[in-house]
Amino acid sequence: MPAPTLQNPAARVRPVFDRRGWSPFPFQEDAWRAYLAGESGLLHAPTGLGKTLAAFLGPVAEGMDRLDPDDAQAPATVLWITPLRALAADTLGNLRAPLVDLGLRWEVGARTGDTSSYRRAKLRERLPFCLVTTPESLSLMLTYPDFREKLAGLRCVVADEWHELLGTKRGVQTELCLARLRRWFPELRTWGLSATIGNLHEAARVLSPDAPLTTISGDLEKEIRIDTLLPKEIGRFPWSGHIGTSLLKEVAAEIAKARTTLLFTNTRSQTEIWHRELSEIMDDPGRDLAVHHGSLDLEERRAVEARLREGSVRCVVCTSSLDLGVDFSPVDQVIQLGSPKGVARLLQRAGRSGHQPGAVSRILCVPTQALELVEFAATRDAIGARHLEARIPLRHPLDVLVQHLLTVVIGQPDAPGDLRREVESTHAFQGLADDDWEWALAFITTGGRALAAYPNYRKARLEDGKLTVPDKRHIQLHRMSIGTITSDLAVTVRFARGPTLGTVEEGFVARMRPGTHFIFAGRLLELVRFRNQVATVKPPSRRNRGEVPIWGGAKMPLSNELAAAVAQRLQRPPAETPETERVAPILAIQRSWSELPSRETLLVEHARSREGEHLFVFPLAGRLVHEGLGTLAAHRLTESSGATIQVTMNDYGFGLHSNRPLPLDEDTLRRAFSPEDLLDDLLACLNTAELARRHFREVARVAGLVVQNFPGRRRTTRDLQASSSLLFDVFRNYDPQNLLLQQAEREILEHQLELTRLKTTMRELETRPLRLVETKRLTPLAFPLWAERLSANTTGKDYATRLAAMLEELEQAAGSGRE
Amino acid sequence: MHLTLCGSPCILLAEHALLAGEALILADTHFGKSAAFRARGIPIPEGDTVADTARIHALVERHAPRELVIAGDFLHAADGKTEEVLSVLGAFFAALPCPVRLVLGNHDRRAGNLPSDWSADIHDRYDLGDLTVVHDPRHAPPERFTICGHLHPAVRIRDGRNTGFRSPCFWLREAEQQLILPAFGTFTGGQVIRPADADRLFAPLRDGVVELPAAVL
């Protein structure tokens, strides 16, 4: 006879809803029923719609049939994986509350990088009913031999915010951990929670490659409204740029109208600039305004989050650091500053308001330049049509594989054959080539296939047919380096006697002299000294504006989905949306001087200026693709002529600038954009080795080649410091067949240049009719590409070449009698 | 690049070494570094030991110095003193046509003694006429012009486009009367320095060494 809960789980967990005066959503009841029927599933719904309860109350209802409600020592039943350790504290609260409502004394605990050593020791003894953890901490726990025993009662594993992990190395790490848990507990049920993305079915398959997941949607139960703050005079509105504070006063007025506002920007620098500008016009910025971004110190961020939760701050200027799930109920207004860049991204941000079930999510978009108005309208179109971005899962990242192999054999010696079957049961490593597997095994045992290159190296070794790691020092070092998150070399900013404020990039501080003023963490600071990766600061001795740090990292491209929506929107009558109606005069100029670009044709504008000639090409395919395409075209066009061409790019197209005539016949242009010999030409013109060297940092860190410094651990790892760039050279010289080098090159092509998208675009361009237009003046679309030519990119050359060129330039300047 | 340091004619070599009169000086070879990594469970390939000893040999052959002075951190760490590394280094010492002066560095002190049958001549500081070689600039005798290592100096070169890069460098500190050599070992990194206004910086560029004008820093 089935337990009563099986028939009516909703009745069992009713008190959770009654106490809040809610009633369960249908998708929540579906999820509970499916769970109790033994199914695994993927739940997708916008944030703030009770996904947590949908996933958690199934196992709870089941537990109510078989566990003692008063047993604080109820066995570990649910493992809850969250992508951000900052989220763990909130998740903990959200999971504890329903247990209290139901009168259950079962424990919920968290094990993350932030957990105190006392709590960690406690958790080593016994695990709670539900354990909240991150992929890194889960991996770490896998290195303890008794972890399996501690988990003996495990029935359910939940991957929270699965869309955030999918497509990342941490996602692959999660896949591998799940494979291990499933091997231990074949009956384990897997539940994924995801925001809505373009490839939900694939997301489900990655989470559970063998057993198909039930997909449950709460998608239609949330209303979203996108409004735009329209500039009054479009004629004076800038055609380019991305900092644009021209709507500052209007934004301040909107902030004053709402109770609590989240103001999302696209970059950390933009966050600091808007914070500074707003604080100059708001009445009491100290009380009402705060700043939040990923480079701020954890404590600072926590303090801001606490103020948000209490509702004691009016506006927080932030980056994607506040994109994720934390529940800030007081937030009643969300503002997006500048291009949304992606459809799902705007949707996610909109979901930060109206977090209560049933409330409407509203987002107010603020343009920083004219064309962004079109992007806002296009995003609304794409959301309406449910054209959301896909998160493409990673395949065969060998750095993650070698890290994980060591992790699991440290925990439990294992036969290579069994290990391989387990690894290949994941989506990421399905069909792993023999060669790759052999290499990975060699990497963790003897160092590499080129044995002679690794004398005296032994880490994992085969004992009685099982791989094991006998050396305690190796185990300790591995535990320290588990994880896949990498960050750039950062300089800590702190007051001489006082708190740490956060981190900035070394390059920014390195060129400042003591006494220089700069803006950081919403404060004006004066540099006192910079030593040992610490920039000591003090409040400034005099008042001035100060520089704003620029953090590195590529600019985020417009997603393919949004770019397609923009292309379509441009061809529709402007009167259809308030945004396009306002920008109509500029679109009219574009149409009369040239034409509006579309994805059916390829628009090429040709213009002359005092500096020379310019070609502007508009494939509408996103910034990274344009970078690849532009660089490639420049390379091919100059190969024969010997002229130099500068390349600029943005999300709409790219510009080629030269002081000599540029070819204008269709054949030559077509050849320049042709996908033929794409890879060879790219490798030739981009110096991918140089790019791969820079990217090697991440690969090296994940594979355990870079030892991180930990406070207090300095002594033991002092002799193991080497930069990833140096490691790259050493591998290239002495073990060039090392697959990690190839991986770095592959990743750079895919991430930095979006090679797949580039190929697709080029094949598509071949079929589009070419529209070559002579323009007398720079059109609204060409202008931003022209304005960027001063910072045109010169990457790709090795340093000796660049230094020699710079010195030559200096000599010429000196020789021409400038002094 | 020719310089006169405290009256002594010197040549800065692109190979991260210095010819001072008839002495060849280099610093921070960090032999056995990749072996130390391997001993601790990090698979870094070997190859630097042979490559770097060969580079020194080539320099000795080309410039035929009367002596070779290594300004400290000849070895990297105790667990890098593996048999392979020591046998390569032993053969290297035996084959050198000139005497070697090893000035001890912080890494050497931690790495422990060298095999007793090597003909190494070990010093805390080594005087060459008016010049003195010590490892750590903080231990330089105040009244003398000193050649040092230890810092692995590198500079950040700015190209004004947010895509600056780093280069190892020779760092001539006028006020302190010191020349800091770039690290010689292939598997050693650089530390970005913050030079004073009066200091001069020299960077290896292709086959030579050039002085870096303030405009690129």
Features:
heterodimer, A: 819 residues, Rossmann fold, 5 domains, seven-stranded parallel beta sheet, 15% strand, B: 217 residues, Purple Acid Phosphatase, chain A, domain 2, seven-stranded mixed beta sheet, 17 strands, 31% strand, globular
CATH class category name of chain B: Alpha Beta
- As a percent range, the share of helical residues of chain A equals 40-55%
CATH topology of chain B: Purple Acid Phosphatase, chain A, domain 2
Largest sheet of chain B: 7 strands, mixed
Question: Looking across the biggest beta sheet of chain A, what order are the strands in?
Answer: 3-4-2-5-6-1-7
- Average per-residue pLDDT of chain A, rounded, comes to 86
String of helices and strands of chain B: EEEEHHEHEHEEEEEEEEEEE
Most extensive chain interface and residues per partner? A-B, 53 and 47 residues
Number of strands of chain A: 25
Return the average pLDDT of chain B rounded to an integer: 91
How much of the residues of chain A is beta strand, in percent? 15-25%
Gyration radius of chain A (Cα, Å) is 28 Å
Report strand % of chain B: 25-35%
Order of strands across the biggest sheet of chain B? 1-2-3-4-5-6-7
Low-confidence stretches of chain B: none
Which word captures the global form of chain A?
globular
Tell me the quaternary state.
heterodimer
- Count up the helices of chain B: 4
